[in-house]
Amino acid sequence: MIRYLLTGGAGFIGINAADAYAQRGASVTVVDNLSRAGTRNNLEWLKKKYPEIRAVDADIRTDHQALAPEAAQCDVILHLAAQVAVTTSVADPRTDFEINALGTLNVLEAARKAPKPPIVIYSSTNKVYGGMERVSVVEDGNRYRYQDLPHGISEEQPLDFHSPYGCSKGAADQYVRDYARIYGLRTVVMRQSCIYGAHQFGIEDQGWIAWFSVRALLGRPVTIYGDGKQVRDVLFVDDLIQAFDAAIEHIDRASGQVYNIGGGPSNTLSLLELIELLEKLNGTRMQYSFADWRPGDQRVYISDVRKAQQELGWQPWTSPEQGVAKMLEWMASQMDVLRRIYPEASNPPAK
Q: Which end of the chain has fewer CB atoms < 10 Å from its terminal CB, N or C?
């Protein structure tokens, strides 16, 4: 039986991973300081479904004594705890650094010092590639596309950290990679694209698909910053968990490696296409208006996932149509919660 330790385990990705592993009969420990909106609801749901799951209220920035014994008793650490918003990082760069960079170092040190060091899977971001200003983009109907990169952005794309968030996640990304080279720790970096699915409450900094979906369900208008033709590759959260599994299964090959994990060229959406899909699934028209582009909003980001396909035997399985329908079904069952926590604020750019 694999023993999993999930930092940020009460968050969106963490709660889905914990649910999946507990269903398999694995040992699951969730470490979370429950500071983000929705995490207490997530944890209450998880504990009710699986009373045997352990929950540790700890902060990866400061609670070294809590991390060390947990790392010593697990086989795999999924390091998901993070400050996830570019806007928040700009407003408070120190806290962003402490959570993303220092917190990751603390997790790595706890793993390194364990009697039998566990595998560490790190949830990184495509933001480590920065604005990619030299990558040519062309307009193609109601979306943008790369002019010369039909497979998307590969792991060979130069790193170019923009924003405090990009810097803190990028620093952590490189620490995780280097701990495999310097200390022999079995680490894997997953540079994730737009992840969406159940238990994503649509809070402003938690992802544009969820944000638009909640607005559609509640019949509220959205503001599109730019022209709505911005494109992202999108990945349903269940497929992400399969990527984690594939890295663990092939850890001898994956250790020390970096993988772009997203929907790839076959699973992409523009903002306008998402609105069209939501209107089709809900059977109602959405109200939306346009505003100026937000600084740093990329016209296109699409992951080249061929390395993960070739080395891990992984690929995305869930189409945007299937995934958004599943997410909407879950959200419809959570309307009371969504009405209570959903902020009345302008929507973020696509991440």
A: N
Q: What is the CB-side half-sphere exposure of residue 64 using CA atoms within 13 A?
A: 7
CA distance 269 to 138: 16
Q: CA–CA separation, 341 vs 335, rounded Å?
A: 10
Residues 309 and 154: their CA atoms lie apart, in Å, by: 12
Percentage helix, strand, coil, to 5, in the chain? 45, 20, 40
Per-residue H/E/C for 318-337: CCHHHHHHHHHHHHHCCHHH
DSSP state of 116: S
- List, in order of start, the domains of the chain with CATH numbers: 3-341 (3.40.50.720)
Residues marked as catalytic? 165
Q: What distance in Å separates the CA atoms of residue 37 and residue 34, rounded to the nearest whole number?
A: 8
Amino acid at 337: V
CB atoms within 10 A of CB 315: 17
Residue 223 amino acid letter: T
Residue with tokens 């022209």: 227
Torsion of CA 308, 255, 107, 192, to 10 degrees: -10
What is the pairing mode between strands 119-125 and 187-192? Answer: parallel
Q: For 46-72, write each residue's pLDDT tens digit.
A: 999 999 999 999 999 999 889 999 999
